[in-house]
Amino acid sequence: MTDAPVRVLYITGWLRTGSTLLGNVLNELPGVFHAGELHYLWRNGVLRTGTNTLCGCGEDLDGCPLWAAVLAEQDPGEARRMESWQQALFRTRHTRRRLAEARGDRAPAPGVREALDRMAGLYATVARHSGARTIVDGSKYPAEPAALLGRPDLDLRIVHLVRDPRAIAYSYRKSKDYIDPRTPVDSTRHWVAANVASELAGRAAAGRYLRVRHEDLAADPAATIARVMAFAGLPGDPPVAADGTAVLGANHTVTGNPDRLRRGPVAIRPDGAWREGLAPADAAVATVLAAPLLHRYHYPLRP
């Protein structure tokens, strides 16, 4: 009898969409482990060359008992190769090619099989040390789930998280700890590319794809979390009160929004500050660049 495949709930899309919040709420469910942005474990945990080596529990990754156990099984030489493969094979622009390989339409590029073996191996290691049946990975690199769709040892499910690009442009006006600011042009161009690539992966995933709007999560968190739970095959009630409050305990996330360090009651509410705070010229730029997708995601041209 073979072991059941590791269930991975991969959150994709662009940045500042609420993936950290979504993952940490799901982390409160039995049998669920939110790993944060696992893509960066090789850099921040193994090689120690990244800008954020803290675990969500507040300890350094190599000082956290859980990650210390995971890291003890990783080889620095493999980590260096993984970083090289990530840059060469798993950027947003590689999504279409990785999908073709996962479908068997073309032979995998050199390094793809090896990289996917290490990614799947890492999921299995994290599941073993955390004791979780479901791993939530908020890395948001659409080429990764696209490539992993072909893995029989993973029960991969894709959550595509979207948010109004003008709200994201407003959020990016200022830096946030180790996260640098971006211009509305830069942010929105990446928003378009990440969402188009995520939809490509979603179409290939068929019934293993769910798109969720940040605005729906903020307006009705209990119903939206319940929808994600049903999609992921997670039983029970959503860990969100009727008033939209979630009580967050400790987590062990790798990288991610600095808000991942928050504990205790968190009120999940809509935030419309960007509607007044975003300069009209910046709003216009984001609107024009994102126009082809705004209607698709039910965002008005005039917010």
Automatic annotation (TrEMBL):
Recorded GO MF terms? N-acetylglucosamine 6-O-sulfotransferase activity
Any Gene Ontology biological process: sulfur compound metabolic process
Question: What keywords are assigned to this protein?
Answer: Transferase
Keyword Nucleotide-binding (UniProt):
no
InterPro entries, sorted: Gal/GlcNAc/GalNAc_ST (IPR051135), P-loop_NTPase (IPR027417)
Q: Which domain of life is it from?
A: Bacteria
Q: Is Chloroplast among the key words of this record?
A: no
Name the chain's protein.
Sulfotransferase family protein
What is the source species?
Thermomonospora echinospora
* Highest classification ranks of the organism: Bacteria, Bacillati, Actinomycetota, Actinomycetes, Streptosporangiales
